[in-house]
Amino acid sequence: MVKDVLIIGCGCIGLSTGILLLKTKQYNSVKIWAKDLPPNVTSNKAAALWYPFLSNPPDKVGKWSAETMEYFQKHILNDPKSGTLLKKVNELFRKPKKEDPDWKPFIKSFRRARKDELPEGYADGYAIDDGFVMDTDMYMNWLVDTFKALGGQIEQREVVDIREPFIYSDIVINCTGLGAKELVKDGHMYPTRGQIVVVKNTSDRSIMDEEDYICYVIPRISNTVLGGTAQDHDYNMNPTKQDTDEILKRVAAISPKFSRRKLEILGVKVGLRPSRYEIRLEPELLQDNSKLLIHNYGHGGSGFTVSWGCAQEVLNLIQQNIPNLKQSKSKAPILQSKL
Ligand SMILES: Cc1cc2nc3c(=O)[nH]c(=O)nc-3n(C[C@H](O)[C@H](O)[C@H](O)COP(=O)(O)OP(=O)(O)OC[C@H]3O[C@@H](n4cnc5c(N)ncnc54)[C@H](O)[C@@H]3O)c2cc1C
Ligand SMILES: *[C@@H]1O[C@H](CO)[C@@H](O)[C@H](O)[C@H]1NC(C)=O
Ligand SMILES: *[C@@H]1O[C@H](CO)[C@@H](O)[C@H](O)[C@H]1NC(C)=O
Ligand SMILES: CC(=O)N[C@H]1CO[C@H](CO)[C@@H](O)[C@@H]1O
Prior knowledge:
GO terms for molecular function: D-amino-acid oxidase activity; FAD binding. By secondary structure, the protein is of the alpha/beta class. 24% of the residues lie in helices and 25% in strands.
């Protein structure tokens, strides 16, 4: 029987996975190793709105998003410490929009926007009344606190060789986001740079206009996030004035309510979305089937939106693969051996 699980990565993906593992009460220890800890991870730079966005494949993202929404409604929204708020969300279109989103079949509350929900100049829209947003820093703190309260341990430690964690544990979960590019040499991983502007609270709901560019207004508990950008293969972690100006111009185009002189800017943030042609969530049996590595990375622009659905999938994959795990022959020398 496997007793210990080691997770690499302390973003929203590693933490959600760790919390669900601990909740099963089936493991002696669930440990996280991470090079950087919150607030110094990509996750802390997110908006963070529940909305499937810039991630694939559509059918799985739809399913995981729906499961995540359900998990939030059952277990998180009623906890004020989680920093989560129920908010209507509208995606807007200048011209009538024929297609529904890929994920519509998964989300029961999806509907078309009513005329009175469309700002001037917009012809169509999507709406979700029971959408929600997270105050990102509050929510990340809540994830860390919840993980620790359940008995999880967090250690700041970089992994340079994927064989290293297997010295301590037969099951390792790879939640390294963009770090997977180096750690497991995944050439499909690339950054999609996102810049946001944080302003004093404005707007009663989340609004997006994403046909020709990235543009959103996301009100949260303590502030409102304006976005954004999606620059592929761009590693620049510094905010640029050009992006800030562009973001302010785009949100002002939604409604004069969001014109620059009405906004009080609190800060500007940049993060690199861990992009991949599709999310990698699959098991890999190593070392004569004595070690199990589960990959859970590449969530692009939807990490928060799919987090709990993906964590549940990790649990399922562990359950399915434990019967295939052979007793480990040796513990110590694996750094020498080829996986
Ligand atoms: C501007 C912006 C806005 C966004 N808005 C939203 C939104 O509204 N809704 C939404 O759902 N998503 C949003 N996202 C996307 C979301 O932030 C990501 O999908 C999510 O943060 C990915 O989480 P993660 O845990 O995989 O990665 P990360 O948060 O990057 O965590 C990765 C962890 O792995 C560790 N690590 C990496 N390599 C190693 C190694 N070799 N050894 C040890 N540790 C390692 C890191 O130190 C870190 O702890 C946004 C992103 C940006 C940039
Ligand atoms: C985050 O980074 C800052 C600046 O580099 C550093 O001072 C701080 O200690 C880091 N926080 C954590 C939790 O690692
Ligand atoms: C933010 O402001 C809007 C009005 O613009 C208001 O409806 C909403 O309740 C405010 N949200 C918070 C959390 O204060
Ligand atoms: C142990 C290990 O590195 N496994 C795999 C991780 O993912 C890459 C693909 O990106 C594989 O090539 C490795 O074999």
